[in-house]
Amino acid sequence: MPNKVSFEIQIPGYTVAAIEYGDPNGAPMLALHGWLDNAASFDALAQNLTGIRLIAIDLIGHGRSDHRPEVMPYYIWDNVTDLHAVLDALSLNKVSLIGHSMGASIAMLFAGAFPEKVDHLMLIEGLAPLFYDEEDLPQLFADAVIKRSKMVSKTLRPYLTYEDAIQARMNGRWPVSREAAEALLDRGLSRTERGYIWSNDPKLMMPSLVRFSFSQISSFVKSVRSEAIVIRGSNGAADSIINPWLGEFYHAEVIDMEGGHHLHLEPTPAALLAERINQWA
Questions:
Q1: What is the pLDDT of residue 1?
Q2: Buried b (16+ CB within 10 A) or exposed e, 234-243
Q3: What residues have CB less than 8 Å from 281, skipping those under 6 apart?
Q4: What amino acid positions are annotated as catalytic residues?
Q5: pLDDT average per 10 residues of sequence, the chain (281 residues)
């Protein structure tokens, strides 16, 4: 494992937990994990980097970072605001961005809003937020209001043992190896008197009240000026979250790889991805 240091970044209103890997004088890159994951999502990839200063953050509400206030919902665009603040706090005027799933969507939105601040993009099993037909938005809004009101009083069900939590993470919707699960749980699990619970804010499970339409997302994708590498797993989720946007990019290279939605957590795909990233040093 290359140099690995855990640290905190202070941004307005929040403390962001982070891991820095590799050469502190290397080419700066920020890594953004997927929904309900954390910065450890990039441990395997970081093992193969050279000449790179990789900073992986726990997005707000995830891992060891602060949660949003109790009455404040989670929206993906707020992560773009957080990312802008992180760059300011680190005195970085321009970086490369690596994102997985939801993190890839955040990276793309940021690159579309601030094209002058992004050097390279690697989007792993993700590209843009989900989109919805505009005529469906009023009903989706109403459904979300009702569902959120029912979820307010719900609490997390604890796992009685650490092994129970490991098995749950290994066998979730997108399965991962035991090694990957252990890395994620190191930052994403808390021990309480009742048992083990996820450190993530439970509000992350609530449906969004406001959503994007196709044309809104398209405007962001078209605004990106970084050359992007888009990674699709053979058993991933490309049909719904990647393929609709490939024709909208200024320039995108698509690489198809064997693996599932979390392929970057596995040694072989991670090494191949790192080879491409090392070319940016």
A1: 57
A2: eebbbeebbe
A3: 26, 27, 50, 51, 52
A4: 101
A5: 88 98 94 97 95 97 96 93 98 97 97 97 95 92 90 82 93 89 92 92 91 94 95 85 87 92 95 94 80
- Has residue 178 been placed in a domain? no
Q: Please report whether residue 104 resides in a domain.
A: yes
Q: In sequence order, which residues have a C-beta less than 8 Å from that of residue 234 and are 6 or more positions away?
A: 256, 257, 258, 259, 260
Phi, psi of 142 (to 5 degrees): -60, -45
99, part of any domain: yes
Measured distance CA(67)–CA(103) in Å, rounded: 17
Structure tokens that stand for 65 in this block: 């970072």
Relative orientation angle of helices 214-223 and 102-113, to the nearest 10 degrees: 60
| CATH code at position 24 | 3.40.50.1820
* C-alpha to C-alpha distance for 179 and 80, rounded to whole angstroms: 30
Query: Does 157 reside within a domain?
Result: no
Q: Give CA–CA dist 263/268, Å, rounded.
A: 9
Q: What is the DSSP letter of 248?
A: G
Domain of residue 81 covers 4-133+211-278
Q: How many domains does the chain have?
A: 1
Is residue 49 within 8 A of residue 280, CB to CB? The reply is: no
What token pair was written down for 147? 């569902």
| Helix residue spans in 66-225 (DSSP H) | 76-89, 102-113, 137-151, 162-170, 178-188, 214-223
